[in-house]
Amino acid sequence: MWDDKRYHTLNYELKKIFGEKTVKLSIDGNFTCPNRDGTIGKKGCIFCSERGSGDFTSDRNKSITEQIVEQKQIMSNKWISSTYIAYFQNYTNTYDTVENLRIKFYEALNNKDIKGIAIATRPDCINEEIAELLKEINSKTFLWVELGLQTIHDKTAKFLRRGYDLIQFDKAIRLLKSKNIRTVVHLIIGLPYETSEKILESVKYVSDLNVWGIKLHMLHIIKNTDLEHYYLKKSFHLMSQEEYVNIICDSLELINPDIVIHRITGDGKKSDLVAPKWTLNKLKVLSEIDRNLKERQSFQGKKAVL
Ligand code: SF4
Asked: Residue 58 above 80 pLDDT?
């Protein structure tokens, strides 16, 4: 239904919009995060890596333009394309004054190769003024904003030290939607002590919000994070590949077919990954998901209530 896939991939969607393979360039906007600088917390989310959950970006001290050039060079080894999205990935990319945000986003926007901008942030770092700036950028380019929700369950969110509640998330989604800005929500699959039922509740909740996109990824235990220390001490259950594939297929069946699936595998650095190691073979995980959906004779949205 979506080229050769049984789910609505980002690759399919961007090809439909831009007419060719579209490549995301990971940009470090040199921001920080209120969950790390002491405003909300000092330790950050329990799983967050040293680079603020964006481990493939360039040197944060380089200008946006220099990073675009560098990332294009890196990606040219993998893809031949002339359509690029500048992806402000690590830390919290709306955590600054509107003036500074404007300068950084416009530097990307004014680059002739950049056809769109993606901004990853926290719901508690979007206010009316920032949403207005995003609306302005959205009127000039193809924009989407990513929010790291991870779970709708309060108990898990506290364990993660996420630092905001579901009410704040809902408020940010409403604000962004009121400005017609595309939203993408991240959920982490396999969080400690969450049952399949709980995971599917989060998936269904986000699907029912009719967001533009969803990112699902397996929990990664990354070196030198508090989650690594916790895991080594408690050794909680980590999903096997088979369990993960099953829950992803269950999730896809529940997700509205209009929602774009941005990711269903993790993307960590091999050298930093403590567990689970099976996530490193992304192609195998993807082909198992395809196989499982085929076996079920299923597809995205099969069980969605529309
Ligand atoms: S909000 Fe993002 S950057 Fe901040 S601590 Fe959590 S994962 Fe890290």
From this structure: no
Position 276 in a domain: yes
* Within a domain: 302: no
Residues with CB under 6 A from ligand 1: 33, 35-36, 44-45, 48, 52-53, 91-92, 122, 148
pLDDT in tens, 174-192: 999 999 999 999 999 999 9
**Ligand 1, residues 122, 187, 188, 222: which to mutate, most atoms within 8 A of Cβ?**
122
Sign of CA dihedral 16, 78, 262, 124: negative
- Average pLDDT value over all residues in the chain: 95
Q: Give the residue, out of 48, 50, 160, with the most ligand 1 atoms within 8 A of its beta carbon, to mutate for a pocket test.
A: 48
- CB count within 10 Å of CB 164 equals 20
Q: pTM of whole model > 0.85?
A: yes
Q: Supply the residue whose CA is at minimum distance from atom 5 of ligand 1.
A: 44
Which domain range does residue 184 map to?
10-296
Q: How many domains in the chain?
A: 1
**Residues 101-128: pLDDT tens digits?**
999 999 999 999 999 999 999 999 999 9
Which residue has the least CA distance to atom 6 on ligand 1?
45
Confidence of residue 53 (pLDDT cuts 50, 70, 90): low
Residue 126 lies in a domain: yes
- Write b or e for each residue in 181-198: b if 16 or more Cβ atoms lie within 10 A of its Cβ, otherwise e: bbbbbbbbbbbbebeeeb
Atom of ligand 1 nearest to the CA of 92: 3
What Rg do the C-alpha atoms of the chain give, in angstroms?
Answer: 18
Q: Establish if 303 belongs to a structural domain.
A: no
Q: How far apart (Å, rounded) are the C-alpha atoms in residues 102 and 121?
A: 15
Q: What is the 4 CA–ligand 1 centroid distance (Å)?
A: 35
Q: What is the CATH number of the domain that holds 168?
A: 3.20.20.70
Q: Give the number of residues written for the chain.
A: 306
pLDDT for 54 equals: 61
